[in-house]
Amino acid sequence: MERGCVVLLLVLLICSSVLALTSGVGLDFELTHVDAKGGRYTTTERARRAVDRSRRRLAASMSSTGHGDVRAPVQRAQGEYFTEYLIGDPPQRAEAIVDTGSNLVWTQCTDCLAAVADPCFEQHLPLYNYSASRSTKPVPCTDALCQANPYGHFCDRDGSCFGSGTIAGHLVTEVFAFQSGAADLAFGCVNASSIDPGSLVGTSGLIGLGRGRLSLVSQTGAGKFSYCLTPYDSDGKAASHLFVGASANLAGESPVVSIKFVKYPTDPPYNGVYFLPLVGLTVGETKLPIPSSLSISGRMAPCLARGDVKKKAPRLVLHFSGRADMALPPVNYWMRVDNFTACMAIDRSNNRMSTIGNFQQQNMHLLYDLDQGQLSFQLATCSKL
Ligand SMILES: *[C@@H]1O[C@H](CO)[C@@H](O)[C@H](O)[C@H]1NC(C)=O
Ligand SMILES: *[C@@H]1O[C@H](CO)[C@@H](O)[C@H](O)[C@H]1NC(C)=O
Ligand SMILES: *[C@@H]1O[C@H](CO)[C@@H](O)[C@H](O)[C@H]1NC(C)=O
To answer: Do 179 and 303 share a domain, yes or no?
Structure first.
């Protein structure tokens, strides 16, 4: 990594080496914004909820950085998008937050009901019951997949793989069916959790898209994935999409920009996370070097009359090494807070690292090409993909 350059963390803020994904086949997921489900929120409530989730994510990542030494596991808090899938034979319904920053697929299992300490959090759908599935298989603790478990690995008395951290449970394999496509995956069948009960907003678990061996992308050998998030302001009416494998492609007229990923850390909590080499920012007409610009947003969130956002908002361009620029459309950094006002949706970073959050990624199709080691993106109308 170049000196003085700041890395950007990309957050959406989701089997004994079985490769069930035949080449050329892709998995498609429909993503729903967490505020689009259940009760309808007013614009002001949604803005407040988004800021609150974002601050909690930041707090969770800060609390894990003791004395500048980033070691403790990050508690993945406050997801933004979830997807529905089917698991087992016969299939059972489950929902998961999709997270590009984590490395495991997991869901809560019926053993939660028997847990004494740290029982599971509440979820909308029934718990996954492996006793009712013909296709479930334990992963032996001698398996390489067990050793790759980001939550640690232990041998249970019966030789099965057990892991324990902020969540605890067994690693097992199952058949997963998504909106389009199916795969055999090893995943955490969780029976205890100390995760903040609200953080998964009633879903049953997580789908990790990180680089780690047990993420959905690694297990399927997909090599690439892409997603496109519909505008936050569309009230979640149009679903967003995630494509894993062959169906992950950029298309259309809009220019494509590519940025090489930065060499990634191999230690927790940032192992498996995607980093980009941010070298500068342009705000309005001023080009700011990094890292002195990290405090630009400070604590004042500037606000504008909504109608003025397109005319008056200073332009914001993120510059990456390799002369790659990401010019953000104003709606991707000005959040509507009521019918008349929009405020800047950029908050202070906690350390040398900044995050491109999902608000910044609206109506942008982002392709994570792991084989090429780069992120490519183009502006897109995500509801039309
Ligand atoms: C799980 O499935 C088994 C087998 O069908 C059934 O006997 C058991 O009651 C189920 N457990 C729960 C909690 O639903
Ligand atoms: C459930 O979790 C506990 C630890 O919290 C573990 O000792 C136990 O074996 C687990 N049970 C199952 C069936 O996974
Ligand atoms: C905001 O606008 C919507 C749609 O035009 C309207 O239904 C709502 O009552 C307005 N809210 C306020 C607080 O003015």
So the answer is: no
Are residues 373 and 315 located together in one domain of the fold?
yes
Asked whether residue 222 falls in the same domain as residue 263, the answer is no
Q: How far is CA 154 from the centre of its chain?
A: 27
Which range is least confidently modeled, 237-246, 291-300, 356-365?
291-300
Is the per-residue pLDDT at 371 higher than 50? yes
pLDDT, position 5: 31
Q: Which of 128, 162, 166, 171 for a ligand 2 pocket mutation test, highest count of atoms within 8 Å of Cβ?
A: 162
Residue closest by Cα to atom 14 of ligand 1: 129
Is residue 246 one of the residues assigned to a domain? no
Query: Which DSSP helix (H) or strand (E) runs through 133?
Result: none
Q: Give the range among 22-36, 189-203, 265-279, 328-342 with minimum mean pLDDT.
A: 22-36
Instruction: Report the run of H or E that residue 369 belongs to, with start and end.
Output: strand 364-369
- Which domain CATH number covers 265? 2.40.70.10
Statement to judge: residues 270 and 149 lie in one domain: no
pLDDT grade, residue 62 (50/70/90)?
A: very low
- Asked if residue 263 belongs to a domain, the reply is yes
pTM (2 d.p.): 0.84
Report how far ligand 2's centroid is from the alpha carbon of 272 (Å).
26
Residue at 1 is within a domain: no
Q: CA-to-CA distance for 215 and 101, rounded, in angstroms?
A: 10
Cα 145 to averaged position of ligand 1 atoms, centre (Å): 28
- Judge if 212 and 329 occupy the same domain: no
Residue 349, pLDDT > 80, answer no
Burial of 165 (0-12, 13-18, 19+ CB in 10 A): middle
In a domain, 207, yes or no: yes
| Overall domain count for the chain | 2
Q: DSSP letters of 169-203?
A: EEEEEEEEE-SB-EEEEEEEEEEEE-S-TTTTTT-
Instruction: Write out the residue range of the structural domain in which residue 124 sits.
Output: 10-241
Cα–Cα separations (whole angstroms), residue 193 to 74, 85, 153, 167: 14, 21, 16, 4
pLDDT at 118 over 60: yes
pLDDT above 90 as % of the chain: 43
Q: Which residue lies with its CA nearest to atom 6 of ligand 2?
A: 169
User: Which of ligand 1's atoms lies nearest the C-alpha of 126?
Assistant: 14
How high is the mean pLDDT of the chain? 80
